[in-house]
Amino acid sequence: MSNDPVIMKPDANKGLDDRLYTVKYEVDEENSHLAVIDSETCVGCEMKPCISKCPAEVYRWLEDEQVLEIAYENCLECGTCRVVCPYDNFEWEYPRGGFGVAYKFG
Amino acid sequence: MTETQVAEVGTAETGMPDKLEFDVIVVGAGPAGLAAGTVCARAGLDTIIIERGRKPGTKNMMGGVLYTRPTAQVWPEFWKEAPLERCVIEQNQWIMTEDSVIKMGYRSPHFAEGVPNCFTVLRVKIDQYFAEQAEAAGALIINETKVDEVLQDDGHVVGVRTGRADGDVYAPVVILAEGVNPQLTCALGMQEDLKPDVAAVTVKEVLRLDPEIIEERFGLNEGEGATIEMFGAPTRGMLGTAFLYTNQNSLSLGLGVLLSEFAEIPDTPHDLLQELKRHPAVAPLIEGAEPAEYMAHLIPEGGYNKMPTLFGHGVMIAGDAAQLVNGLHREGSNHAILSGKTAAETAIDAHEKGNFSAQVLGHYRQRLAETAPTIADLRKYRKATKFMEHHPVLSVYPALAAWAFEQMLTVDDKTKRQKQWEIIKEALRRRKPWGMAWDAIDGGLSFI
Question: For residue A58, what is the domain's CATH number?
Fold first, then answer.
């Protein structure tokens, strides 16, 4: 068994797609409101808590490229990634006015 | 609000005037912002509320329980016409292990009499109702507009820069009700950004279910509601709670966990929610319910210790942005509304005096402390989060209490005295006497 820290369990977020399917978004096709400041910092980050703590699986670690893939269009705008990042390595802002998640019930 | 005004602010084609001036700018159309906007507009102040969502409420989420009396201080008798879900007559606390539960609760018809105590709500509906009230009072609400920056002149806040073309708006006083992610107040240097030990990630699902089935399962009459707060296993003993609330024709099921503890394990918020749905005590209650919406939000848990200054030259902070949440009592929107109202009253006062300095706006904090339980309550629980972090209140004790119940309620060949001794021995095995003593003493010091 490897001693690598477990970033996320292999079967994590099973069924999340069904949940996200119930969410209405107005996707800003032109720009992402989420960005990593320095990719190198992510390489050295052991737990990468942004990945497992995101309620909408916005983040994925690309092993080959050694970068964080950001599916910003799934973002629920909670701010968890920014707050949980041990290196304050996010450039985080809300989507442009009118874009992003649009709850029906809330 | 007139269409021309919206067009002026809202479209690049018509172009915004170089300078759009108001008496008050409110950032954010949640409970704090809409309360502030309503009170300012009623006093005749030219009030603009700027909201980034398509409509008020569409970015917002809470459990959610709305308390009537604080809300009625801004919108009297709103409960007679507002789109509320159910009047809560029963409130339960469940202490849970992976497959068992100790149930406590209080049910009383008095909660529905006179001014009912509280209602379950869905934020999109209720926020839009509050927004209508603000507009009826004369406030201008501009949706789909994000405030990117607070404008300052010589240390005084003088307006905001929005994401719209020529989108600067000016006012001598700005009320920031921007919500839990305090981007603007941080940029002003009025507080530090949230840290994992003062923020709980919360996920919730709205599950559609027939009203008759809800009433049957929860033992309710038409229009009556119940709430369940769940402690222990749903958050794996980490600091946080889970909840199940009855709406008119849906259930709100969710949980929140403090990020500093949650970050230590590889599980996701969604996984914990799914686990909760499978719990043998929860599953029968949500059986057959149709997923209607999934959502997430942070809850500020910093409380009194992390409360920012609340005011500066030309600016006040209200609601979640000011950390005004009492997590232990699941109270947030009531403090948001009261803080918004109080900030508005202070703004009105400042306009009368023609003075918008921090000296005058500082009355906001004083007023809030004198007229609302908000600051006193936050102060009372200022050590609560630290206490919960340092004591195994949600891990060791729920399991131990469940084990004790199981022993005492199981009838076999042991005497009750034998069972009592076994429980005491087991308790001491799971938590050393000095540990228990420390939990009790520190608990007393932290909460009383």
Answer: 3.30.70.20
